[in-house]
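In the previous chapter we treated chains in isolation. Here, by contrast, the input contains two separate entities that must be folded as one system, with a combined length of 534 residues.
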Amino acid sequence: MNTDLRPILVGNEFAEVRVTRVDGRNGPRLRIESPRSGTAVELCPLELEALTWQAPETFSAMIGKPRESLVEPGDREDP
Amino acid sequence: MDDPADLTTVLADVRRGMIPAHVYNDEEIFRLEAQRIFARSWVFLAHESEIPAPGDYVVRRILDDSFIVVRDEHGAVHALFNMCLHRGMQVCRAELGNASHFRCPYHGWSYRNDGRLVGLPFHREAYGGDAGFRRSDQRLLPAPALDTYNGLVFASLDPDAPPLREFLGDFVFYLDYYTRQSPSGIELRGPQRWRIKANWKIGAENFAGDMYHTPHTHTSVVEIGLFREPKAEKRKDGCTYWAGSGGGTTYKLPPGDLRERLRYVGYPDVMIDKMLREWSPAQRAVIGEDGFMVSAASVFPNLSFVHNWPKVGESDDVLPFISLRQWQPVGPDETEVLSWFAVDKEAPEEFKALSYKAYLMCFGSSGMFEQDDVENWVSLTSTAAGTMARRLLLNSRMGLLADDEPVVAPLEWSGAGTAYVGYGEYNQRALLARWADCLETPVRTPSAVGFGTGS
């Protein structure tokens, strides 16, 4: 697995994240890490494209449930 | 004041141009100013060019009230009281930034950048969900009134304040010289921000009309050859004007037409062409026919402007700059100065760079004019605190005869408001008359608002 060694840092007074392109054997993902909270996610191109479809309300809903998943993990969907 | 009769006497003295010296350093007066001037007037917060993109914000104050001045995702500008609805923590602590959402550092309540509350941690567990705290439609408290003129964002803490345009009145005639030299208006750099041990009114009065101090206080600026204008014989040829909520000073320019006079202060033709299209016939005539060029000005209560044209290089060529400044009261004897550089958005880049240099040489925390002025204001403020200052009425009647008739007849010209040529304290009196009108009128106490209780 190749990792682009130059992460992008994006921060303001509320949050700071490290964004890195992670090249796997069969394709890339975008890794987003929050060093302060120790959380990370690796998003594929389709997940990233899906972000571009969202209204600000989606992000408000996500931010409104800090440190939790908007949808509970598992098979069932419980918004 | 403990005794209302004392206030009545103070205001009567101020209105006849005899200023009780203690008003420049007096706890009781300051408490009244906070309630009756700053909780009522339209106060400048920011310029739209400081928050050009969605999510851009700056944090600004009206006395002790902190506001987030922010452009939301749809481009609308808001001034949100910077206090979390839950425990009152300041939601934004950085002076500026860009964010789609704000998150309170205390318990993590989060707000969209239009002020709407979007989340409180453990809503269901802690409050029983909406049954305990109705989350929808709650938002950071907006400033009671918000409006803009030429991109200048003003707020008033009085929900019944007259419209901003009405408040500014005919002063907008002059505001356009500073803030509308092309259809795009100005862009700001700064502010530089520092504190001085001086009362806030002194700067506002000085910029409103004090042409008289220029040759004396700023002698050194002329001596080193930075500035070609402020010699005594030049300054008294200018006029002062008062219109609506503000007034200012001008310089009389040498003979010439409008274009020649704008060139004389250093504007390039490419900018002059736009001014000629943008300004009204009367605005053009003030310069082109009457021969006056705006310099310093103040809008009641605490926003000032300056337009000067120093030499910026080795040659005798001058170049103009514009600065906005705010006298933000901290206490009766302390003021936070906010000083911005302003320049027309459409100006050539080379002009912007030189104009910024001109500004830095004259104003801002290192500017020569600024150093000269503040020395006087600090001295005045400190002396105004004592017992003797309560016995002294400062004479602010320059330009008036004993029978209150003006020393010279009002100027007949194309400008708005009332103007007089030469030295006078017409504008300082006009500003303090507004101050007196506010101080004698109590403010209605607005009802408190609470959130989330469902009632």
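Chain A touches chain B through twelve residues (CB under 8 Å). The longest strand of chain A covers residues 16-23. Compare these points with the single-chain example from earlier in the chapter.
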